Amino acid sequence: MTAYSAAFSGPTVGDLLASPPFPGGFDLAAVYNVALQYQGVPYVYGGNTPAGFDCSGYVQYVFAQFGVSLPHSSSGQGAMGTPISLADAQPGDLVIMDGHDGFYAGNGNILHAPYEGASVRVQPIWTGDYTIVRLGI
């Protein structure tokens, strides 16, 4: 157990998957609204609880609340979705980059756990090298 996880006493990804607070599927708006609640949570490498998230741990934790099991890997999460065009992207879709991911936030922005020393936030997508994927289609 790492120090960050010892500081968190709420549900883990496994707990959420066993008893999701939002069972029975999901819609993108609901996913995005849950994801927004974690703005300000610090980036922690390997983190997948609100005590600290890395990028894929953040996505994993949010989707677990809807009973959706995702790997703790940005490439693995991207492989579970269907690529869609930016024109069709909605908040709650995933932005998949090489070694990084987060939630599409609309208007060319990403909601993500960026890097050590930063916190979950919305910011402009800074590269043209990404794919938007949608889970559940």
UniProtKB/TrEMBL annotation:
Keyword Ligase: no
Keywords, alphabetical: Hydrolase, Protease, Thiol protease
Keyword flag Membrane: no
GO biological process, one term: proteolysis
Domain NlpC/P60, residue spans: 25-137
Gene3D superfamilies linked: endopeptidase domain like (from Nostoc punctiforme)
Name of the protein described by the UniProt record: NlpC/P60 family protein
Organism in which the protein naturally occurs: Orlajensenia leifsoniae
